[in-house]
Amino acid sequence: MRAWSTELREHAGRDVALAGWLHHWRRLGHIGFLILRDGRGLAQVVVEDPVLCARIDALQRESVLRVRGDVHLSAQAPGGVELRAPIIDVLVAPRETPPVDLSRPRLAATPALALDHAPVALRHPRQRAPFEIASASMAGFRAALRARGFVEIQTPKIVGTATESGASVFAVDYFGRPAYLAQSPQLYKQILVGVFERVFEVGPVFRAEPHDTPRHLNEYVSLDAEIGFIEDHTTVMAVLTEVLHGMVAAVAAEAPDAMARFGRRLPEVPVSIPVIHFTRALELVAADGAEDCSEALDLTPRHERRLGEWAQEVCGSDFLFITGFPMAKRPFYTHPDPERPAYSNSFDLLFRGTELVTGGQRLHLYDDYLSALDRRNLSPAPLAGYLEAFRHGMPPHGGFAIGLERWVAGLVGAGNLREVTLFPRDQQRVMP
Amino acid sequence: MRAWSTELREHAGRDVALAGWLHHWRRLGHIGFLILRDGRGLAQVVVEDPVLCARIDALQRESVLRVRGDVHLSAQAPGGVELRAPIIDVLVAPRETPPVDLSRPRLAATPALALDHAPVALRHPRQRAPFEIASASMAGFRAALRARGFVEIQTPKIVGTATESGASVFAVDYFGRPAYLAQSPQLYKQILVGVFERVFEVGPVFRAEPHDTPRHLNEYVSLDAEIGFIEDHTTVMAVLTEVLHGMVAAVAAEAPDAMARFGRRLPEVPVSIPVIHFTRALELVAADGAEDCSEALDLTPRHERRLGEWAQEVCGSDFLFITGFPMAKRPFYTHPDPERPAYSNSFDLLFRGTELVTGGQRLHLYDDYLSALDRRNLSPAPLAGYLEAFRHGMPPHGGFAIGLERWVAGLVGAGNLREVTLFPRDQQRVMP
Question: pTM for this one?
């Protein structure tokens, strides 16, 4: 029976079989230290047999091995445990050294080189750690929502209309007729509030924007939820707060080793995340500089960083809700603030000074949709299916979308989303 | 505090608030019976107040209501419970009747009409039930794999090469350069075996095949898993069997009401699903007819139906593994059977006479990939990233892909995948 490297201590005093890759090999006189990497961690194997040492000398890094040996607790060993008196089977012997050195604490490669050789570079324990965190985060997201009666949906990514928002879309040749890649599941998740009331989806979204920044990619993973029978956007913010709680708890429980590689604390999600209105946010960012932003309709990345610092200093919070963004900059389905109709019942959630979530209350009355489209000079015809849901009774509803990669980047302190995306897609890169 | 229709019995004797849609309204002399539909089920509301009855007479179906009243157990009521002495708030009043009648036990609409009006037709309790089953199935799939140490991955859907298999791909205009929609996460999940050993993904796949059959769609949801350090394809089949167990258990636990609408029993997954070799499968299908299939390289849908009947009759099983498909008809990454190299270490799993899963052992040696590509006249260049993983040590591995819609169709007895797809995509349909 095979053991995982991370569970070796539990087998102390016994004979176990490990399997994995030759991560590192070092001779100290007559003794050799082999570091074996498996899907979860690293294990030290001590080799004293000179014949075996000579055999291992001849192996390439990343050789695939099965190693049987005795588990010994040892204060000097990394993790306090090691395998001794090993029997080693070479399952696969590569003939070349890897294109990047995987054995240092940090990958010694430029970001571009790491991406070019992602199939190998991702094997580095620190390179793969963000994806263990992503896996735990997705599980936490779903568990929190399922516990609250949400139904998981899978909506189409090939769509017939490109009119959800101003963002650019990728065109697909769909049997000779035009179609597009969905920018988000927004329209479908709203339709399905009419069916299930509470829905969520985890899936890819596609943005053809010619951005070339560390904070944007052309394909990313969106964690979407939508909820019916809300009071207003504050109901959505309360659900989102609970979901973030679940995500942090899942990372803490399932990916503590991965988090430890980045030396950053997990955020605490306050029971009540601080909230400020957009107009107040502008005052705060204006107060500390000469910039006049009294006419601003949106926040810049610099504003977001400043507000993140403010939340940290004044509220001791990694998170900050900004509500009431001007209607002029939000998509057509946004619900206005009934008291101040130039502002919206929408929100952004900043996490450590970066926009992580966008959400809010949506319009739910058919006539309001017709007016909203008319005001923006958008034709209702391509949205006929979507509008049909509203013609036949939709409750007050709202929802949110969390960018998975931005979440993980905030947790691990990555400055570029490419570090937390397995195979990123940008203008330069569509392979591997 | 709002209650769900399905939990009404638990509130007997109390005053509760429900919310939902006016599903049906019927007057019997001075009394009216309002059926309220919420995201989970139906509740009967008894109205005796003549003024309120007159108000409800004037409401359209699908009006969005909040209903407060007293919960009474009643032998005559559907489900044995009803709400009496209601106070009704109309949250949203639609002005038109729905395009399809939602109140009959079965939707009275042609399949095409139901699809054209999916945003409303999906509200019908029997139309939405397959998606409650799908939601539970996905949860069961993930839970089974996570319990076995699998990491969830999200791989790109926009890909630079179209060479995975002979199947047709959709082309995307990617900033002026050619790109394609991924036919499956196959190449990525294999690469990631080199990183995490065990991975899974739930996501959309895209096939540009001009099929127009009840068993094919151009976009569907694939439940993918891939496992390192296997013995051969039988290790994969054992994991798949456990995963199917988890999926059936999740449907039984979470979607019993949805299943009950179809009057079909849940399948039992045998601890050991019956297995026959491809050559034996051909003998079985040849035995009962004049058809000569001694030269056949694949199974037809008719063969699959016949083999499904055989598994039922002879083994009492809804499931049947067919192993050893001829190499000639399997993709280039397929591992041959070392004993009979014209046949492969691959399998299909039939569920009630339809192919539900394809899987098998993959090649893991770099040189074997070069030979396999060469034999098929495929160039290695577009696969450079994928092949790099094999140049640097990949363990014996394999995996499988379950078609989510086929699974649900088999559970509910749907003859057409369009009945179990929220917004199906075929040559005719890219909206809504």
Answer: 0.97
